[in-house]
Input
Amino acid sequence: MIKKIVKDTIFLKQKSVPATENDKKVIEDLLDTLEANQDRCVGMAANMIGVKKQIIVVAMGPVIFPMINPVITKKSGEYETEESCLSLNGAKRCKRYKEIEVDYLDRDFKPQHGKYSDFVAQIIQHEIDHFEGILI
Output
């Protein structure tokens, strides 16, 4: 189901908690909502649709995939960039890493490990920041 995008910064600054298999509906809602907004959005965290769970979805070209309880385990190549967010107005400067490694659960809650670089790595870092209430 396509959900409304949360813009309440007080809500967005609250920390998210780990997701469980009971949150499978949230994953589907996030996928649907990102797909509906793909003309202006490349990633989304669950708090952007009003759910404080550690779930993100990422658009890697035409492929959209979820990451449940993702944790960045390695990062390299720090750089500064400017980002915007569907939940916020304007853009802000922030630090990102060119290459990251991430441990996460897939949509079947099976453990995965991925290596990501460049723009996809930037998207993942931005969305994971949402878990800590970090708004760019």
